[in-house]
Design brief:
205 residues; mainly alpha; Serine Threonine Protein Phosphatase 5, Tetratricopeptide repeat; two-stranded antiparallel ribbon; 68% helix; globular
Length: 205
């Protein structure tokens, strides 16, 4: 009988079934099956879309392209993930258009009661208070908005407008500069930064 080397007869046992060493080595070299891609939750997917759009918004050097990205961000901000909240937001927008401020406030108060972590609900409340001249309440709701979404260029622009209206021009300039750090191609913020910079340059320190 032909004698072979010991390695040729090396046998491993797996679950009681003999396996030649060469076969075992082949199994080790077999690529592991690819893991299925992780399925993102609706919240994580929403955040990922926003992150991508904010990156695009910051990179754009075309005003029109930046406006498109900003519009897509606004659409995502107005999507809460709750059909009830979204419907209340639609009703509040219609009430504002019809100049029914108290009705809009009622709808928006329901929004933030149902979902206190929904940034756009607070921002819309701030917008109404700004429109009615109640700057204290507007500021409080802007603060809530920015706690939930620090990149909210709309809330920052609102803050800048309130600061400017109340004579706090340096703080207004700082707020507009924060807007431009997020949305560099916002023309209105660019104009305000230029004007306030020139105005403040002529004031004594």
């Amino acid at each position: 009988m032909l004698k072979l080397g010991l390695s040729a007869f090396l046998i491993l046992s797996l679950a009681g079934t003999p396996i030649l060493a060469e076969d075992a080595l082949a199994q080790d070299l077999t690529p592991a099956p690819k893991e299925a891609p992780a399925i993102l939750s609706p919240e994580a997917l929403h955040k990922a879309r926003l992150d991508k759009l904010f990156g695009q918004l910051k990179r754009e050097n075309s005003e029109n392209a930046a406006e498109i990205a900003a519009g897509q961000i606004w659409r995502l901000w107005f999507t809460s993930g709750s059909a009830t909240v979204d419907l209340l937001m639609q009703w509040s927008a219609k009430a504002i258009k019809d100049r029914k401020v108290n009705v809009a406030l009622d709808f928006l108060n329901q929004v933030v009661a149902l979902d206190p972590k929904y940034a756009e609900g607070w921002n819309q409340l701030a917008t109404i208070y700004y429109m009615t001249g109640d700057y204290a309440k507007a500021m409080a709701d802007i603060d809530r908005t920015l706690q939930l979404e620090p990149r909210h260029f709309g809330a920052l622009a609102g803050l800048a407008q309130i600061m400017e209206a109340t004579g706090h021009k340096k703080r207004a300039l700082e707020a507009y500069e924060k807007v431009l750090a997020i949305y560099p191609m916002m023309r209105s913020a660019q104009t305000k930064v230029e004007a306030l910079t020139q105005e403040l340059a002529g004031q004594p320190i």
